[in-house]
Amino acid sequence: MKLGAIAAFCTLIGLAANAANASGGTHVLFIFDASGSMKKEVDGRPRITVAKEAFGNTVPAMPQSASAGLMIFGARRAKDCSDIELVSPIGSVEPGQLMFSVAGLQAKGETPIAEAIMQGARSFEKFQGDKNSIVLLTDGIEECNGDPCAAAQSVKDMGLDLKINIVGFTLDSRQRETIECMATATGGLYYDAADAGALLGALTEVTEAAVVAQTEAPPPEPPPAPPPPVEKARKVVFSDEFDGSDLSPENWEVLNANTDGYIVEKGNLMTISAAAGGFANPDLANV
């Protein structure tokens, strides 16, 4: 399962690099949950160890043209809902440097999801009008009396065009319902990750989506239609209103007729020929 996720990771990050090189102005803030519940084990290892490993295997491969930042909650103090730290403001370091900021984390504190989202959103105020995303990696639900759904609506109302993407690590369906609304409200993505392999795949996909989906350049506007040509004023210099019936025999007199030189068919003159010399020549045939 890990091999499949890593293969998907390589393909998706390759797409991310190509797309991000095509356009700029893409900003991603990762919010990393280091709350006490991350001490619990999955696949025989602490969740936080698995999460740090997955983070280190995906985020550094982001294209350098995309600016990234990192916020962490619950890593410094137990039972403290204010333990939210913007470790790396957006664009302060290259994406690959963020892995070093999570390497030594220990799971200690609470899970202030709503407040972390609000603080994270304020990091994007100077990027208004750009392509902005939050990627939240969490194994729990709100523990500090916040309202994640209301927080997401407030973020949407800020007009930052900020998408909240969520990787729910080992969450059950009830827990998922309490935070998935944040992705729904802002047009972001939600991924379930039940174990280490699924976490690597989910974090890869949501990271790739935060970069690629937002850096795809819109189709170019079609070139404006050329103005219609300006027509010059016209005047009539010749008008031909010839009617074939005018060739009927009663309208013509053939002088110096030569029946070998003209044809009359059904009473109408079909063709006539004359020798050179001009009409002033009295001997000209078939005039």
Please supply descriptive tags for the structure shown above.
20% strand, six-stranded mixed beta sheet, alpha/beta, single chain, disordered N terminus, 10 strands, 287 residues
Task: Give an overview in words.
The protein has a six-stranded mixed β-sheet, sandwiched between helices. Strands 2-3 form a two-stranded antiparallel ribbon. Strands 9-10 form a two-stranded antiparallel sheet. Helix 1 runs parallel beside helix 7 (196-215), helix 4 packs parallel to helix 5 and helix 5 (148-157) runs parallel beside helix 6. It is rod-shaped, with a radius of gyration of 40 Å. With 287 residues, the protein is α/β, with parallel strands linked by helices. It has seven helices and ten strands. The N and C termini lie far apart (103 Å).
Largest sheet: 6 strands, mixed
The computed structural class is: alpha/beta
Globally, the shape reads rod-shaped
Our Rg estimate from Cα atoms comes to 40 Å
Strand content: 15-25%
Number of strands: 10
What's the short story on this structure?
This protein is α/β, with parallel strands linked by helices and 287 residues long. The chain has seven helices and ten strands. It has a six-stranded mixed sheet, with helices on both faces. It has a two-stranded antiparallel sheet with strand order 2-3.
Task: Spell out the blueprint of helices and strands.
Blueprint: H1 2-22, E1 26-33, E2 41-42, E3 45-46, H2 47-58, E4 67-73, E5 84-93, H3 98-102, H4 113-122, E6 131-138, H5 148-157, E7 162-169, H6 173-186, E8 190-193, H7 196-215, E9 262-265, E10 268-272
Parallel strand pairs: 1-4, 1-6, 6-7, 7-8
Antiparallel strand pairs: 2-3, 4-5, 9-10
Helix pairs in contact: 1-7, 2-7, 4-5, 5-6
